[in-house]
From TrEMBL:
The lineage of its organism: Bacteria, Pseudomonadati, Pseudomonadota, Alphaproteobacteria, Rhodobacterales. The keyword Oxidoreductase applies. Keywords: 2Fe-2S, Iron, Iron-sulfur, Metal-binding, Oxidoreductase. It comes from Roseivivax marinus. This is Aldehyde oxidoreductase 2Fe-2S subunit. Residues 46-122 form the 2Fe-2S ferredoxin-type domain. GO terms for cellular component: periplasmic space.
């Protein structure tokens, strides 16, 4: 066994060493800040072609622009709402290639060639979709801010259940999935209504599902 090391550190030595480490860290942060201000490598913008509500649209966007901002600020489709901007409220829900997505979490440049549908492509005040009519008939909204995302999700929820796509509350995966309140609530849980119109939203979705049965 090696003999014990006779080690002693003095207070002055400790303080000097600590100060040197702090100075070194400061230099490292300064160098990092300088590097962060350096010009980016490669192009800053990209031109993409999107098929939005059946219409081909070409736009050039900053590579950091979200799909939500591309829809609202570049294509002026403001029906898709910006709520939390963190993928937690569902107000920005639209569909990409038939699947619902939170557009605030996706970059526009990722969707070159994709097909998108927003609330503007679902119906108009003069020609409303059946789900829009059901929301009106069941008073499924109050302030209306979350309603576009709710309607986009609601239509896809029925499609998912009909297609046999299971959810967290689905029991027997070998049996046909039935359209229950629990299934609807679970699948709509990503769409928040701060007014609390959940019971009426559930009634609207159930009404449309029964009409389509």
């Amino acid at each position: 066994m090696s003999p014990p090391i006779d080690f002693e550190i003095r207070r002055r030595t400790l303080l000097v060493g600590t100060a040197a480490a702090a100075v070194g860290a400061g230099f490292a942060r300064h160098a990092s800040a300088q590097n962060s201000n350096a010009a980016p490598i490669g192009p800053e913008t990209t031109t993409v072609t999107l098929t939005v509500n059946g219409e081909a649209r070409e736009l050039t966007v900053d590579n950091r622009v979200s799909l939500l901002d591309a829809l609202r600020e570049h294509l002026h489709l403001t029906g898709t709402k910006k709520g939390c901007d963190h993928g937690q409220c569902g107000a920005c829900t639209c569909t990409v290639n038939g699947e619902r997505v939170n557009s605030c979490l996706s970059l526009a440049v990722m969707h070159d060639g994709d097909e998108l549908e927003t609330i503007e492509g679902i119906g108009t005040p003069e020609d409303m979709d059946r789900m829009q009519v059901a929301f009106v008939e069941n008073d499924g909204f109050q302030c209306g801010y979350c309603t576009p995302g709710q309607i986009v999700s609601a239509r896809k929820v029925i499609e998912e259940i009909r297609a046999g796509v299971p959810s967290h509350v689905t029991g027997d995966l070998s049996a046909e999935i039935t359209l229950t309140d629990a299934e609807i609530r679970e699948r709509m849980s990503g769409n928040i209504c701060r007014c609390g119109a959940y019971a009426n939203i559930l009634a609207a979705i159930t009404q449309v599902a029964e009409e389509q049965a």
